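[step 3/7] fold_predict: job queued, chain A
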Amino acid sequence: MTENTHPIACSLLARESRDQIGEWRALSAHRVTSERIDGGYAVTFDTEVAPVVEDLARREVACCAFLHIDAAHTERGVRLIMTSENPDALPVIEMLVGGPKLTS
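[step 4/7] structure written:
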């Protein structure tokens, strides 16, 4: 870990963390695309869930300083880019938004 890399840590309590992970999993049904990018994933969600994606992204950044999250509206939906400077964060990012379709 370099000096500029945040440790992989979440400030939520265990129950809050489980609930938030559940919210990410619920969004997986609305995933249009998922692309592996340098340091993380770029995922597009249906437009109809844009407010939920934006709210969840804001809360995730607040509790997990090691993540960088940007959301932008596109013609296909809301594109979420989740990355980290810490290479050990990739499994966390994959658990939240990347990789194969998530199930509950």
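[step 5/7] annotate
The helical segments are 14-27, 50-63, 90-96.
The beta strands are 31-37, 40-45, 68-74, 77-83.
exit 0
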